Amino acid sequence: MAKWGQGDPRWIVEEREDGTNVNNWHWTERDATSWSKGKLHELLVGIAVENEAGRCEISELKQVEGEASCSSRKGKLIFFYEWNIKLGWKGIIKESGAKHKGLIEIPNLSEENEVDDTEVNVSKKKGDGNILKDLMKTAGTAKVREALGDYLKALKTEFTMGMILPTKAMATQELTVKRKLSETTLQASSPVALGVRIPTVALHMTELFDTAIEQLYRIFTVKDLVQKFSKSPAVLEAEKGRKFQMFDGNISGEYVELLTNKKIVMKWRCRNWPEEHYAIVALNFVPTLGQTELQLDCKGVPVCEEENMKFCWQKQHFEEIQGLLQLITLNG
Fold first, then answer.
1. Largest CB tally within 10 Å, which of 14, 177, 196, 233?
2. What is the per-residue pLDDT for 299?
3. Which of the four pLDDT bands, split at 50, 70 and 90, describes residue 186?
4. Which of 110, 108, 109, 134 is nearest to 122 (CA)?
5. What spatial distance separates the first Cα and last Cα of the chain, rounded to whole Å?
């Protein structure tokens, strides 16, 4: 029997005051239903196919019933999804200009079947136009299956970001690699624990929002609104010197400067970055004609995290905020 504290590290659960799921031991689960509905709509609606005879396009998502979730246990991700999907399509015959409509039904998209084996049924309203139905049954079905495959890839990568946390051993290895890089060929620009300096990059991104500058500023500084667009718990009080956490603690930092409706500057980091390393994120709110342009400038992003950083802001911030603004507008 192993002595206390000398067991296999894969089976050791470290105690943490902040409750972090160290070594990914504990069972965690995240509901992917709402996110999945939005992603399926994004990927399926607008699919178009065309040949010499006609052109067809998926025009609406009529029904999406089911659920999806992702669970983590002992460092492994387990996915569950089961969907019944109905799509509306429309098409036009080039020679005659005749227009036709139909349905695409996907009765069982689930983890029990491969995407290529998923049943996709195409139908058309009564009348002529079978040439369009044939186009949708061949090229259209292929594109639908491709989109379903993209959904599953996003579910297993985009949605699960931050669910598997680095273990202590992984973090030590990563820090060692970065130390060697910084000591040999790469120039550093930001200090980390133990005096190690890592290579970093700067990012600049812009996004136009169809809302008043005051509303957009509130979305970044009001806890309830932050939790709505991030779809996860947040801890924040938007005042200079105050710390914050978002996305279940996977993003954290500190407010450096706040100019109401003009500018927010933050120390900002992802949980899996080298210990105590922060980037500096500056958000500038620029009024335009009836809209607001958000200018993001970020310095000190680890080189190996550049693409993840872009993804995080584009997909998990900008696009989610656009969706929240649409809901706010619909609800009046």
1. 196
2. 94
3. very low
4. 134
5. 65
What is the residue type of 257? Answer: E
Q: What are 160's two structure tokens? A: 């699960």
What distance in Å separates the CA atoms of residue 82 and residue 78, rounded to the nearest whole number? Answer: 14
Q: What token pair was written down for 244?
A: 């914050």
Token readout for 49 is 């196919």
* pLDDT tens by residue, 82-136: 999 999 999 999 999 999 999 999 999 998 888 889 999 999 988 778 999 999 9
Residue 211's nearest CA partner among 323, 49, 100 is: 323
DSSP of 92-111: EETTT--EEEEEEEEEEEET
As a whole number of angstroms, the distance between CA 103 and CA 4 comes to: 63
Q: Which residues of 151-186 are buried (b: 16+ CB within 10 A; e: fewer)?
A: bbebbeeebbbbbbbbbeeeeeebbeebbebbeeee
Task: Provide CB contacts within 8 A for 146, sequence distance 6+.
Answer: none
The amino acid that residue 219 corresponds to is I
For residue 279, give Cα distances in angstroms to 179, 201, 297, 298. Answer: 18, 10, 10, 7
Please provide residue 271's backbone torsions phi and psi, each rounded to the nearest 5 degrees.
-60, -35
Beta-carbon contacts of 241 under 8 Å, excluding residues fewer than 6 positions away, are: 254, 255
H/E element, 33: helix 33-44
Distances (CA, A) of 193 to 21, 189, 281, 328: 22, 14, 20, 43
Q: Is the pTM of this model over 0.70?
A: no
**Angle in degrees, 0-180, between the axes of helices 319-330 and 223-230, rounded to the nearest 10:** 110
What is the distance, to the nearest Å, from the Cα of residue 98 to the centroid of all Cα atoms in its chain? 40
CA dist 45 and 41 (Å) reads 6
Classify burial at 9, counting beta carbons within 10 Å of its beta carbon; exposed 0-12, middle 13-18, buried 19 or more.
exposed
Backbone angles phi, psi at 216, to 5 degrees: -65, -40
Q: How many CA atoms lie within 13 A of 200 on its CB side?
A: 21
Question: What letter represents residue 133's amino acid?
Answer: K
Strands 251-259 and 121-124: unpaired
How far is it, in rounded angstroms, from Cα 55 to Cα 34? Answer: 31
